[in-house]
Amino acid sequence: MAWAFATTVTLLLAALAGSSFYMLDFALSPLQRTDDEALTRLASHAPQQVMQWVDSMRHDGRLRDTVVNIDGVAAHAWIAAAERPTTATALIVHGYKDTGLSMMHIAYLYHHDLGMNVCLPDLPAHGHTPGDHIDMGWAADRAHVKRWIAVADRLFGGDTAATHMVLHGISMGASTVMNVAGDSLPSCVRCVVEDCGYTSAWGEFSWQLGQMFGLPDFPLLYTTSALCRAKYGWTFSQASSVRQVEKCRLPMLFIHGDSDDFVPTAMVHELYQAKPQPKQLWLAPGSAHARAYSDHPAEYTRLVRDFVARWTANGGSPSHR
Fold first, then answer.
1. CA pair distance 24, 258, nearest whole angstrom
2. Quick check: 51 pLDDT over 50?
3. How many CB atoms lie within 10 A of CB 85?
4. How many Cα neighbours within 13 Å face the side chain of 106?
């Protein structure tokens, strides 16, 4: 009986270890889409005028490839200067297993509609930026966004002026900009727009574990999180946008589809409650995950225009830490 018990325990532990490795690989393995794949996905939901604008920007060379070295990584971004010189700049961050090009509908809003400069980085292990795993908006993702803030500020502000910058992210990109906003940032960053971001990597993986596999958190999420710490230096609970927005004093606009079942709508209420003023919340009626702009382009544009105009004007930013 003792031998049988020991054998059973050993097999169960081996199965748990194997499942943890599988889950970590399933969740964090890169899927680096090509430019054509990113644009095909974008065309499936973006308005036709956006795709025509994208074609024009690429054909005329106004959308430029830019590469900088970040901690030994050749980090890539797409950058476009506004039609008229301005220091108003949007740094736009893509979602999970997407690329900077997948955010061209949001770039259209800022560049075409609002006349701003835009910078669309590929996060590590996405698009043209190399990497061996996805950071879920934490660790390397935060470092890369901060570096791109500095690059965009130098490009569009120059030696004599600072930019007036908004950070805008969707899905994992939204959690990334929330995580960045909880850190000390240069004064050029004036406000943040987060669209359907999750509360934490733990919260999102817990939700997906239940939705996709019908499993509880214990024990698999705990062991996988511990494995993530051993391999990559962070745990799922450490990657917490809620804790980061608690520290953020920048103005933040929260956007979420009220029919989002991928990052459940309830998460935005937890995030909004945690964030000190100034803040604003809009629930997009009937919108699923990351579809608020596609479903309500005019309302989305109006809300973002009004919010950004209020906080990117000279003197419109609250004091930084």
1. 29
2. yes
3. 9
4. 32
Query: Tokens at residue 282, please?
Result: 């809009």
Q: In what order do the strands lie in the sheet with 279-284?
A: 64-70, 73-80, 117-121, 88-93, 164-170, 189-195, 252-257, 279-284
Exposure b/e, 170-208, CB count within 10 A at least 16 = b: bbbbbbbbbbbbbeebeebbbbbbbbbbbbbbbbbbbbb
Alpha helix stretches (DSSP H) within 44-182: 48-59, 104-107, 140-157, 172-181
Q: Which CATH class is domain 33-200+239-312?
A: alpha beta
Q: What is the tens place of the pLDDT at every residue in 112-124?
A: 999 999 999 999 9
Contact 117, 111 (CB under 8 A): yes
Q: Which two tokens stand for residue 91?
A: 């740094």
Cβ atoms of residues 107 and 82 within 8 Å: no
Give the pLDDT band (50/70/90) at residue 32. confident
**Please, which residues have CB within 8 angstroms of residue 70's CB and are 6 or more apart in sequence?**
143, 144, 147
Q: What is the DSSP letter of 102?
A: G
3-state secondary structure of 165: strand
pLDDT value at 54 more than 70: yes
Per-residue pLDDT reduced to its tens digit, 171-197: 999 999 999 999 999 999 999 999 999
Query: Which tokens hold the place of 60?
Result: 């005329």
Question: Are 306 and 157 in contact, with CB atoms under 8 Å apart?
Answer: no
**Which value, to the nearest 10 degrees, does the dihedral of the CA atoms of residues 151, 152, 155, 156 take?**
-160
Boundaries of every domain in the chain: 1-30+217-236, 33-200+239-312
Q: Is the pTM of this model over 0.90?
A: yes
Sign of torsion, CA 239 235 145 28? Answer: negative
Give the SS3 label for residue 36: helix
How many helices (H) and strands (E) the chain has is answered by 12, 8
Q: How many CB atoms lie within 10 A of CB 302?
A: 12
Residue with the larger pLDDT of the pair 3 and 162: 162
Q: pLDDT tier at 318 (50, 70, 90 boundaries)?
A: very low
Q: How far apart are the first and last CA of the chain?
A: 63
